[in-house]
Structure formats: structure tokens, C-alpha cells
Amino acid sequence: MKVQDLPHKVTGYWNSLTPARRSALVVVILASLVAGTLWLSWFLRPKFAPLFTGLEQQDAAAVVARLKEMNIPFRLADGGTTVLVPQDRVYETRLDLAGAGVLGGRSLGFELFDQSKLGMTDFERHINYQRALQGELQRTITSLEEVENARVHLVLPQPSVFLEEQAPPSASIVLKLKPLARLRPEQVQGIMQLVAASVEGLKPENVHIIDTQGNVLSAGLAEGESGPLTGQQERQQELKRALERDLEQRIQNMLTRILGPGQAVVMVNAELDFNQQEVFRREWGDEGSVRSEQVITEQGTGGGAGGPAGDPNREPPGYAVVLPEGGTYEKSDITRNYELDEVQTRIVYAPGQIRRLSTSVAVNGPVDPPREEQIRQIVEAAVGFQPDRGDQITVLSLAFDNTWQERAAAEMAAAEEAERRRRELLLYAGLAAGGLGLLIFLIVLLVVWRRRRAAPAVEPWPAELSTPGTGIAEEQVAVSEEERREELERRARQEKLRELVRQHPDDVAQLLRAWLREE
């Protein structure tokens, strides 16, 4: 098929269609074009990545203006504080903006004195020094990993000739922490010491630090304000909260397996004793062990008793005394020394002992008393319930307010539905584009197939023209192949026209009328 014949073939095919088929074909072609365009635009769109985050309004406006001058596409997010550019141009654009000094005015340091003006007064020089010092401190504090941005305000009074009238310098710092970041008391105290050492005459107790939520971070951290005690109390609170979280998590996991997700809420309050105690205990038993023993035994024998001493003639009268004839004697003396049955015990109680536990469990929905008692027993076993310690456990059945959860679930479902529709649209667009290409291919294939089918078979050359000695001139026998091909094509076109006239007489008539009107 020749290229110049393609418009005629398309026109003929179009005229051979009925009005309904023409409308359907137009709709399919337009839908395929729209779907293909949408799919290509989505597939070829650039991927954006953050260029700067957490910008101030003035800095964001300067960045946007510079991007417009550079003809770089951009997007804004997070309320205009985040600027996004194509991912493959992030680093190049960032270097260009840094070289142009777009964000150079965020914090000025001692480079303020690089271009000193002639005739600058002492007051202007003092103000520039204060601004430069504030900028340098801001840069230093912002370099901390937990700090996203910082503002430093210094009050530097003019020196006075009278010491009593000399006002002390002071500093105020506002910190913007990164999401989920938190400064330890030691870090806050380090910032206070840094600022105090950077400003002449500034004392740490005159440095005040707050965050963007209005929380005072420097309370009680200066020297002389029980700083170490505050740090110790902070560690004690962290230990207390860690114990409470561990118990809550254990009980929550157990109740989730029993009642289901979101059907119970557990809160634990632990009272800890952080006093270090050392106890000495001494006990004595009833009997002790024998340390030493001494036994002395004395034995002897003797005759009867004699008469009274003196002159027998001068003995006064009296009754006669009966005396024994003789006897033996024995004497024993036992001395025992005992060891004391004493037990000494030294007990050291480490800080952090549990003094009391209070546990509250709220269960969703009405729960019968036997079920509540089972839950109470499970919780008692989980926390190590000790009545003599004063532990308390409360189990209540209440109806939970699930409005927020339902709203969040509805929003998540809507987002998932939108994502599913977007994917379906992209899928249908790709299928439509593929279908359009397949349809065009089938149309061309059908036209070629019909043309070949309608072409008549090559008629054999008459025998009389190829047989010598028939009396026909030699010039008529030597017909070129080109003429034969043209003759065959002419006959094929004629046969095609006859077939069209037979199949679609009305359309052919309309076509002829249109040609006549054009002529």
C-alpha cells in the first residue's frame, strides 16, 4: 500500500461506517487520548524533595522569589515553612541560593565589622557588637543536635563609674526543639554556662531559657539554686516513669489479648523510696556455746570427834554428846564460761524501692462482676500486689468515647479510597492508551487485509502472445513488467469500487454527490 493512498483508504473506511459506529469511534479515540495524556503527565512529572524546612516567612518569601527568577518549579508545604523543588536539582539549587546569600541574614555574627563605616558612634558600635554576639551565640546553640533554631537576646548595660549603679548583664534565650527532641538538665545548664562565659560579667543565674511552648528550662539549674538536686530529681522521675510504663505495658498487652485491642486502658502510679537505708540488727539466743569450763573436786576421810579442850576436872556438868566414830567428805567447784549467742545483721536498702503501687483499669462496656473479679486477679498477679504495702487496684467498666478513633479511621479509609481510585485511574489510563494503540494497529491491519483479499488473481499471459510464430509483432510480446503491474492495480481498484457500490450503494451515492458539489 502506497502512502499517498492512505488518506483515501481512511476516508473510505470512515464513509463505510454507520453514524452510531462513527460516534463510538470518536468517543473511544478522545477517551484514549485523554487517558494517555494523563498517564504520561503523571509518569513524567518530576519528584519533589525538601529544599529548606522550618523557614521564617521572610526567608521563605526570599527563597520563592529567587526560585521564580531561576525558573525552577517549586512547591510549598507545612504552611509555607517548607520549600520543595525537583529531586534532581536539590543540591544544585541549595548551593546557588547559598552563593546568592538569600538566607545570609538569618544570623549575623562578627562579620558585621567587616565593613565598618566612618563616623560610627560609640552607641552604634555597641549595638553592632551586641548584635554580632547574639548571632554568634545563636549559631553555636543551633549547632546542638536537639535544637532546630534559637533566638538570643542580650542586655549589655553601659559601664558606669559608680559600682552601686552598675546594672548586671542578662540574657534570654528561646529554643525551638526538633520534633520529639528533649534537652536534659545537664544540656540546659551547659547552654547557661556557655552564654555566661561568652558575655563579660554575666552570671549563670541571669541566663533564662525557655522553649517555644513557653516551658522554662533553666529553672533551678543555676549555681546556688540546688542544681545537682534538681538533676537528681529528674533522674528519679525518669526511673519512676520507666517503672510505671513497664507495668502499664505488661498489663495492657495482657488485657489486649483477653479483651481485644482498644477495650481497656491501664494507668499505674508508683511511689518509690529513693532514700538509701542501712540497718544493723543484733539478736541473742537462749543458750550459748561453752567457751571454757573449770572443775575442782576435793575428797577426804577422818576419825570421831574428841573431848573438849582444857582441864577435864574443871569441865562443867552437862549432857553427854554422842560423837560419830569417823566419816568422809567430797567438795566440787565447777566454773563454766559461755559465748554469747549473738547474731548481727547489716542490711543496706538501695534507693528506688517500691513503697506503694496504685493501679487503675478501665474496661470498655458493661462487664459482669465475675469478669471484673477475674480481671482484678490477673492485674494483681501482674503487678505483684502486696496488701501489707498499701497497694490499690481499681477495675471499672465504662463506655469509651470512640469518636476520635472513628473519625481517624474514617479519614484513613477516605485516604485509602482516594489512593485506590488514583491507582485505578492510572491503570485505566494505561489500558486506554494501550487499547488505542492496539485499535489503530488493528484498523491498519484490517485495511491491508481487505485490500489483499479484494485484489484479483494474476491472470496468465495469453498463450498466443507467448507462442512464437503466431504473427504478432515482437514489440507487443515484449511488454514490460511495469505495465503489467499497473494494469493489475487498475483492475483491482475497479473491482474494489464495484464491491463498495454493491455493499454500500447509499454511501457511494452520497460521496458522489459531495464530489459533484465540490466540483
Describe it for me?
This protein is an alpha+beta fold and 519 residues long. Among the domains are: 3-42; 46-98, Alpha-Beta Plaits (2-Layer Sandwich); 109-226, GMP Synthetase, Chain A, domain 3, CATH 3.30.300.30; 227-284 and 338-399, 2-Layer Sandwich (GMP Synthetase, Chain A, domain 3), CATH 3.30.300; 486-514. The chain is built from 13 helices and 13 strands. It has helices at residues 6-16, 19-44, 57-69, 90-100, 122-142, 185-198, 227-259, 369-383, 403-454, 463-466, 474-477, 481-503, 505-518, and strands at residues 48-52, 75-77, 82-86, 147-155, 170-177, 207-211, 264-273, 277-284, 290-303, 326-338, 342-349, 353-364, 392-398. The strands form five sheets. The protein has a three-stranded antiparallel β-sheet, covered by helices on one side. Helix 2 crosses helix 9 (403-454), helix 7 packs across helix 8 (369-383) and helix 12 (481-503) packs across helix 13. The radius of gyration is 55 Å and the shape is elongated. The two termini are 28 Å apart.
